[in-house]
Amino acid sequence: MQPESIAPDLLAPLDDQNADTYFVRQPETPQEVERACRAALSCCVSSIRYGGTDPFINRRLGNSAEYCDHPIPWWQVWA
Prior knowledge:
By secondary structure, the protein is an all-alpha fold. The protein has 3 helices and no strands. The longest helix has 13 residues, at 30-42. The relative contact order is 0.16.
């Protein structure tokens, strides 16, 4: 499933003018955060990354350097 179909209100549509996956606006509600995380995890080229430091979102993304710019140190992951 394409990330754009998971969070169409958050991500730019892919079309003849745009071949890149990116956020057009940041998620604001818990439901939007969940859809943004699902979209990131579904992206086959890992082009969607989380640049923040919210531990909930990092954990939701598997605390993976593939998806998180600032993973939680291993000794704090489940603290």
